[in-house]
Amino acid sequence: MKIVAADVIVSSPDRNFVTLKITTDDGVTGLGDGTLNGRELSVVSYLRDHVVPLLIGRDPHRIEDTWQFLYRSAYWRRGPVTMAAIAAVDVALWDIKAKAAGMPLYQLLGGASRTGIMAYGHASGRDLPELFDSIRTHLALGYRSIRVQTSVPGINAVYGVAAQPNADGRRYDYEPAQRTPLPAEEDWDTRAYLRHLPGVFEAVRNEFGPELPLLHDGHHRMTPIQAARLGKALEPYDLFWLEDCTPAENQEALRLVRQHTTTPLAIGEVFNTVWDYQTLIREQLIDYVRSAVTHTGGITAMRKLLDFAAQYQIKSGIHGPTDISPVGMAAALHLDLAIHNFGIQEYMPHGRLTNEVFRQSFTFADGYLHPGDQPGIGVELDEQAAARFPYVAAYLPFNRLKDGTVHDW
Ligand code: CS2
Ligand code: MG
């Protein structure tokens, strides 16, 4: 079998997606997701201008060799653009290998280690009544684990609050990246947030009881000592996890957080290689690995990362917002079903138009996802539908503190 074509398909139903479609001389095709929110075209160029010419004529079955070739022959390693491009190729090749084998990808990854994949959904509110309604809505949709995000008095726009209006007039629901010529500026005040959040979780526990798994995303906004304080203040509410409590480029920063709290910690959605986790995993400083297959070099690299984490009893918590395409989500679900150290899977359903472009066979029922049993990863791309939605420039927002200082968004 030989690769005879590799097409980079850019489409913008509901939001921008970058999809690589690899075709073999046997007519077997494989799809890979290379979507990097707010920087999509950089991956398009990396693929079209640098990687695609290297794929033509290669044996699609030599996945590890192709991975190493793309990672090492580039000379310049790591980084979000490179690793998203490599991920797109890697997942497309696993899709082809599983289709050629006539089985769903999870069977090639060692078979199912569970009957279903626990998913968590995004509930949010500008105030408690709206938040409670959002939690009830997600429970009615079948979610059995809920992420809680809330507005903060004195702050105009906060990450993750679905009902707040975006600068481009659309509701936040579907997408934080906004179709505006420049990034929207939002405001932030960590002390106001730290005063407000524990009371919100107390109210949620009083309303919904002690059992419901609750998650929260700090979205990289606290210093290590602020994160330690929040983790401690939230201990009475028994969170499933506190995510991205502090920027973790300096992995040692989590030592201070760990010293002060037993609230489980999840980190890694902005990471793109195992190297970003070495200290965090070796020193037991986190409990969940948050990387996405799409941003961490694909199935080949993610499996190695999760195998490393397993040695330290650290579990998966794969990133799954709407800027991970249905292809990237499907790839994650096959991995989720096969690995032993599975923790939980984020699941933000895609929009109606996206589901017209990507035909998916994964299912969500009674709180659990399943990748389906189609050969391959189980997603097909309707190229005619994709062509109806050309790329639209969009940016993620950024933050400024009250004194004008740029802050983590
Ligand atoms: C978030 C993401 O889902 C999450 O945990 O952190 O929604 C994140 O903001 C987006 O993926 C950014 O593109
Ligand atoms: Mg997050």
Descriptive report:
It is built from 13 helices and 18 strands. The protein has 409 residues and is α/β, with parallel strands linked by helices. It has two domains: 3-104, 2-Layer Sandwich (Enolase-like, domain 1); 109-374, TIM Barrel. Strand 14 (363-365) and strand 15 form a beta hairpin. The N and C termini lie far apart (46 Å). D-mannonic acid is lined by residues 37, 176, 217, 219, 269, 321, 323, 346, 396.
Short précis:
This protein is 35% helix and 19% strand. The protein is α/β, with parallel strands linked by helices and 409 residues long. It has 2 domains: 102 residues, Enolase-like, N-terminal domain (Enolase-like, domain 1), CATH 3.30.390; 266 residues, Enolase-like C-terminal domain (TIM Barrel, Alpha-Beta Barrel), CATH 3.20.20.
What multimeric state do the chains show? single chain
End-to-end span in angstroms? 46 Å
In round numbers, the mean pLDDT is 96
* Count of helical stretches: 13
Poorly predicted segments: none
Radius of gyration: 21 Å
Bound molecules: D-mannonic acid, magnesium ion
Question: How would you classify the helix and strand content by structural class?
Answer: alpha/beta
Looking at the structure, the CATH topology of the largest domain is: TIM Barrel
